[in-house]
Every structure is written in C-alpha cells, then in structure tokens.
Specification:
Elements lengths: L12 H13 L13 H4 L8 H12 L8 H5 L6 H5 L6 H13 L9 H13 L7 H4 L13 E4 L3 H18 L3 H10 L4 H4 L5 H20 L16 H5 L3 H18 L3 E4 L2 H14 L6 E4 L15 E5 L2 H4 L6 H9 L1 E2 L21 H16 L5 E4 L2 H7 L5 E3 H8 L2
Helix pairs in contact: 1-3, 1-6, 3-6, 7-10, 9-12, 12-20
The structure holds iron/sulfur cluster (2 copies).
Length: about 425
C-alpha cells in the first residue's frame, strides 16, 4: 500500500492548511512531475493544470490569495499519483489537490463549489447512489443464485453499473457547457431525480458492464467461493464524495454504510473494481469507526482455477488505483501466465491514467488523455487490450480489441 504522507480526513480549515503547507513546502520546483502529469498536455500545457502548477496555486491559497480560479486546476486532477512516483522531494500533488478540493467543498474559497459535485453529494445521502438508481443497478444479477447468509458479499460498489449512465451524462455536459450550473441545483431539488437519470444510458456499455459482472460472478462460483449480494439494499460506497473533497459528508455516509454491513452480518467483502477496493482499504479503514471487514479484490479468489492459454499478443492497461493506490498486482500475473503479454511504455508504477476520473467534469481533456493512452497501448501491436477497471474499460473502449480481464478469464477458464 502506498505511503500517504497526509490524510485527507482533515476536518477543519486549520488542519487542512497545516497538511497543505507541510506537503507543498517540500516542493523544490524542479518540474519533474510535469513530465508525467497527464493533465498538462490535455489542457494545452497550461501550467496551472499540471502537477507543479497545482502546488504553486496551493501556495498562493496559503499566502491568503483566494481570488484565483482554484476549482478547475484542482477538480481536474485525476488523483492518479503519477507525480508522486517521480518527485525527488516526495511531494504528492494529488494529495495537495485532494486537500484543496476539501477547502473548496467546505466553502473556504467563495463561489468555487462545483454544482454537479454538490448535486451528487445530496443525492448519495438521500438515495445511497449518485444518480438515485435502484433496480437498474441490480439488473445484472437477474436469475443468478446467491447464498442466504451475508457473511461474504460480492460488493459491486455500483461502479460497473454506473458507467453506462456516466457516459451519457458526460456527453450531455459536453453539449450544454456552462448550463449545467443552473441544471444541477434544479435536478438535486427534484423529489426523485432517478426518474430522469434512469432514461439516459449507453445501451452497449450497459450490456457490456452487466456481462462483466456476470463473468465475475461465474468465475467466483467456479472457484468455489460462497457469497451473497445485497441487491437493492447494496449502498454506494461514497467514492465520488471523497474524490470531490466532501470529506465530512463522506465520513458520515461511510459510517452509515459500515453500520449497515454490520447489521447484515457481513464479515468479508469481495470488491470487483479498483476504486471501491481502494476506498474501502484506504479511506474507510482510516475515517470510519469499526470498519473491521476483510476486504479483497475478486481476482484474489481465483488462484485455484485453470485457464487454457491464448496464443495472442495481449497488452495490459494497469489502473492507477490498483498499482499506485493499493499495490495490487494480481491481474498482471494472471494475464502474463495465459497470454503473450507485452506491456506498454508506461507500465507498473509508471502506468498512465485513462482519463476516466475527470470524464464527467472535463470531458474534452479526459478524451485527450484516453486517446493518448490508447495510442500507447496500440503501439505494442497487441491484438487484445486488457484492463481490470470498469472506468478504464469505458474510457479506453475505442475499438473491439479492448476487453475487461473478467471477459478474458471467463473465455479461457477450463
Ligand atoms: S517533482 Fe516534486 S519537487 Fe519537483 S516540482 Fe513537482 S512536486 Fe515540486
Ligand atoms: S495526481 Fe495525476 S493529474 Fe494530479 S497532479 Fe499528480 S500526475 Fe497530475
């Protein structure tokens, strides 16, 4: 697990300032981080939209200058931690962005709150999901059988299911531009926004994401794992809240999720995407009382399965949240053992973000980042591109060579 220098659970302005100044003051302004920060080229080399620029902006904030545009530079940070890998002073511009997002979310900088972030936080509190969806999220499990006991649960964290809706939402945001500022508060004030959101989804992505979840179910069953699923009662983990800086709201919400798991008798949580895995491992354990569950990633349970070998060149896009936030390396081992694996130029700890984390707020920049990464993956001449994250999958799904690892494994399991 990556060593986090400062927690982002600071609950008062003074604590945020203390953590920010300790982190930012170590910066020696060398610029190494700019060479690896994906947002710099995506925003046409505007320095404030890159790792070093973010540190310098945080220093401006600390010096009392609150009149600059802080929202775009910090909200556009991918939280990918590529900068931290190369910094000789061990500064993490991603953590600086997290702290600045918290200052913005807490209203410490006037008029810079993101309306969509506000809307999502309110909806999560009310409906336990960012879009207020319920039955749509369980459609993947229709006809599947689960154990009666909730001792071990497969926890989707809604991530795969939300991808189809997120895709449409970001297309809409791209076309309406700044109009979202007026629409977001309106949507969050509606009695039940799910009525609107449930109508907007990408059919192809929905089918593909649901089939990936079914593959995961099938692989776990074949491996002899006994598990249940909370179905319509499954809560969203609150990942977007913490990602957008709503730390205090996240703490409250995550405590509610934890209490629900306890009430249901949960002991073991099998996650199926890197973001949920990361948030449970690194945020719940830090900010929530009594989070004593055994959290695993589904691939950890498949070591007894046998797979036939695929004699094709395959490349693997390593998700930032697996290799840098949690140090989880199982997917690469699996792919390596059953295919002819050729890794792209940016791999391992130096992987390159897919752009997904900013797709909803900065869709054009997100697309530039994913195009760049897709090109790198294609340069390996691989016939198949694999990833192990639903966000990466959707962002890199630019032709039919792109697959989720669950699809590859389900095809090859014997
Ligand atoms: S690499 Fe580290 S020390 Fe150099 S500019 Fe970036 S944050 Fe500062
Ligand atoms: S976390 Fe990623 S996007 Fe953010 S400053 Fe670092 S390299 Fe850039």
């Amino acid at each position: 697990m990556i060593q986090r220098i400062y927690s982002t659970g600071e609950s008062s302005l003074n604590e945020v300032i203390r953590a920010l100044s300790s982190e930012a003051s170590n910066c020696i302004n060398c610029g190494f981080c700019e060479a690896v920060c994906p947002t710099i080229p995506a925003f046409d080399y505007k320095t404030s939209m890159g790792a070093r620029g973010r540190i310098n902006l945080a220093k401006e904030f600390l010096s009392g200058n609150h009149s600059l545009n802080f929202r775009d530079p910090f909200e556009s940070c991918l939280d990918c931690y590529a900068c931290f890998q190369v910094c000789p002073a061990h500064v993490n511009s991603g953590v600086v962005s997290e702290l600045m997002k918290q200052a913005i979310a807490e209203g410490q900088i006037e008029n810079q709150k993101h309306q969509v972030a506000e809307m999502i936080t309110k909806i999560v509190f009310k409906y336990k999901d960012p879009l207020g969806l319920k039955k749509e999220l369980t459609e993947w499990s229709k006809g599947l059988e689960f154990e009666n006991s909730y001792e071990t649960i497969l926890y989707t964290g809604h991530m795969h299911q939300l991808m189809a809706y997120n895709k449409k939402l970001s297309e809409m945001l791209k076309s309406i531009g700044e109009l979202y500022r007026f629409l977001a508060p309106l949507l969050s004030s509606l009695g039940n926004p799910s009525f609107i959101f449930s109508k907007f989804y990408d059919k192809k992505i929905k089918e593909r994401s649901e089939s990936q979840l079914k593959n995961i179910y099938f692989l776990l069953k074949k491996a002899g794992v006994k598990f249940s699923y909370l179905g319509v009662e499954e809560p969203y983990p609150g990942t977007l809240m913490i990602d957008m800086g709503y730390v205090n709201e996240f703490k409250q919400y995550a405590q509610w999720v934890t209490d629900l798991f306890h009430k249901k008798g949960v002991k073991n949580i099998i996650t199926v995407d890197p973001h949920t895995y990361d948030v449970l491992l690194n945020k719940y354990t830090k900010y929530v009382k009594g989070f004593d569950f055994n959290v695993t990633f589904y691939l950890d349970h498949l070591s007894t399965l046998k797979f036939s070998r695929l004699d094709k060149i395959v490349t693997y896009h390593e998700p930032c949240h697996l290799v840098r936030h949690t140090d989880h390396n199982v997917p690469k081992g699996f792919i390596e053992s059953i295919t002819n694996l050729i890794l792209p130029i940016h791999n391992g700890k130096n992987t390159y973000c897919c752009g997904g984390p900013i797709e909803a707020f900065y869709p054009k920049a997100s697309e530039k980042i994913s195009d760049k990464r897709f090109k790198e993956l294609k340069q390996t001449k691989a016939e198949i591109i694999i990833t192990s994250c639903p966000i990466c999958f959707v962002n890199l799904y630019k032709d039919e060579s792109v697959m989720d690892i669950s699809e590859l494994l389900a095809n090859l399991v014997t």
